[in-house]
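User: Just a sanity check before I run the rest of the batch. Below are the structure tokens for the first item. I only need the designed sequence back.
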């Protein structure tokens, strides 16, 4: 079971800063083309949020157009730059969002693995939030399949990452409750996040939590050599039948030969 994780594309549409717009569209398109060229193909592509910069229908339409270049199915979640209504309007047709649900939380079973999405946005702040309603909903989803290895994906890491310039990016009490919930559900083998725009890993109890760089290279927080300044980076996670996860970072080089 191979999962490609992309995040933080921050797409801009017409009328925006032309340089940033063109760069982010190009970063996203090249990433999709790179994933499309993988052998074997990933079973699923996760977009862990901040799909758009301004949550306009035009930006989501552009995202859909670019994602249509993938052969693999896509599961997407909301980040702090996204808004639930236009996100749902753009992605409801894919069938995994629960109709009428207020939050972008869902579970999909694929090849013996369960992929569970949590919605961590608080529209009043860029920080992560997680109210009691979402906590109860997520708890109920996880209780449905306690024995199936589960990968939880959400935009904001609910734990401080000391190396990041702003280590605490979540409302503290709500993050504590979310971490406790992760600890109670022993089937969770990994937590995948975006938001920090850089690659780090930190443990949440016994569960590793990892973040990925932003696909938008102008917003990346990692340090890269000049030659890679406009080269997007994403991650592949290979999940074994016993729930073991092996992750690797992929550089979207200009040609496949460069990957060798
Ligand atoms: Fe972001």
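Assistant: Here's the designed sequence for the first item:
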């Amino acid at each position: 079971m191979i999962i490609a994780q992309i995040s933080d594309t921050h797409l801009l549409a017409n009328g925006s800063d032309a340089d940033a717009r063109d760069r982010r569209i190009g970063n996203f398109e090249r990433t999709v083309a790179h994933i499309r060229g993988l052998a074997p193909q990933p079973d699923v592509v996760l977009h862990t949020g901040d799909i758009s910069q301004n949550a306009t229908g035009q930006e989501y339409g552009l995202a859909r157009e670019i994602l249509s270049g993938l052969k693999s199915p896509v599961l997407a979640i909301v980040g702090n730059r996204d808004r639930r209504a236009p996100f749902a309007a753009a992605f409801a047709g894919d069938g995994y969002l629960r109709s009428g649900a207020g939050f972008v939380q869902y579970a999909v079973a694929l090849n013996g693995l369960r992929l569970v999405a949590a919605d961590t946005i608080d529209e009043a702040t860029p920080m992560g939030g997680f109210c009691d309603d979402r906590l109860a909903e997520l708890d109920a989803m996880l209780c449905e399949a306690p024995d199936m290895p589960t990968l939880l994906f959400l935009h904001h890491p609910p734990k401080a990452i000391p190396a990041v310039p702003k280590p605490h990016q979540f409302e503290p009490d709500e993050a504590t409750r979310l971490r406790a919930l992760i600890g109670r559900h022993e089937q969770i083998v990994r937590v995948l996040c975006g938001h920090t725009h850089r690659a780090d890993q930190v443990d949440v109890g016994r569960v590793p939590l990892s973040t990925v760089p932003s696909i938008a290279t102008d917003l990346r927080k990692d340090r890269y050599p000049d030659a890679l300044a406009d080269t997007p980076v994403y991650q592949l996670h290979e999940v074994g039948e016993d729930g073991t996860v092996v992750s690797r970072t992929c550089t979207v080089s200009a040609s496949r030969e460069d990957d060798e």
